[in-house]
Amino acid sequence: MIILKAEREIGYMREAGQILARTLAAVKAAVEPGISTMDLDRMAEKMIRQAGGKPSFKGYKGFPATLCTSINDEVVHGIPSTKRRIKEGDILSIDIGVIINGYHADAAVTIPVGEVSPKIQELLAATEKAMWAGIAQARAGKRLGDIGAAIQAVGDPLGFGIVRDFVGHGIGQSLHEDPQVPNYGTPGYGTVLKAGMCLAIEPMFNMGTHIVKVMPDQWTVVTTDGGWSAHFEHSLVVREGEPEVLTVQRVESPQSAVGSGQ
């Protein structure tokens, strides 16, 4: 069942989104060769709790940390560890969720650590571009297939593997709600979008195959061919016009809507 959100509920999600955005910006700034993924996790949890929020992921279905930190061929759900230290030339995906008054916000970004190859730069740029292309379709009257098709239209011509086993989702009082939001699709097909729907749109593009597998820790998802992977995500509200992106950091009033983010 898809749950439309009232403005009061969206306000809580907006507040969670701003705590998330500030925390994610600080974590990104702290990434450097030699730092451990657990160092980043502890920093994020401290910031979230000091701001009055709670981490969405910690304890979710047994997940042990505040962040998902996925390196290179890890697609999603990497577990932070004192033993995982970031190296020059890595790419790091940081996925983060925040709860305020029982309502969630969820976002992710993939960043290069120092210099990476032009092809990896293209992977990161294309995945982020695809996210914004999908977000631009999240308007009342559009369909879920329009979002997936817009994302797919960025990745396919470049030959990137578009992950199918993990998709975007509705979000609200639960971290994952209906509907599922695939990163592929056909324009004009699927559920009609309505104002008040809250979605997390999150393309994952791989350098090679789209096929992935879960590691023995039962969380970390990796590519089956060792190709590197990128992941970008924002939470948003479907509106009659441009969608409101909840997890973009704002300096002005959080009441203002954000469209393309670019």
Provide the descriptors you would attach to this structure in a database record.
5-stranded antiparallel beta sheet; alpha+beta; 262 residues; Creatine Amidinohydrolase; 4-stranded antiparallel beta sheet; disordered C terminus
Walk me through this protein's architecture.
Mean pLDDT is 95; it is low at 253-262. It contains four helices and 15 strands. The chain has a single domain (7-245), classed as Creatinase/methionine aminopeptidase superfamily (Creatine Amidinohydrolase). The chain has helices at residues 7-30, 37-50, 118-136, 144-155, and strands at residues 54-55, 67-71, 74-76, 91-100, 103-112, 161-162, 168-170, 177-181, 198-201, 204-206, 212-214, 221-223, 229-231, 234-237, 244-245. The longest helix is centred in the N-terminal third of the chain and has 24 residues, at 7-30. Helix content is 26%, strand content 24%. The radius of gyration is 17 Å and the shape is globular. A hairpin with a 2-residue loop joins strand 4 (91-100) and strand 5 (103-112). By secondary structure, the protein is of the alpha+beta class. The strands form four sheets. The chain has a five-stranded antiparallel beta sheet. Helix 1 runs antiparallel to helix 2 (37-50) and helix 3 runs antiparallel to helix 4.
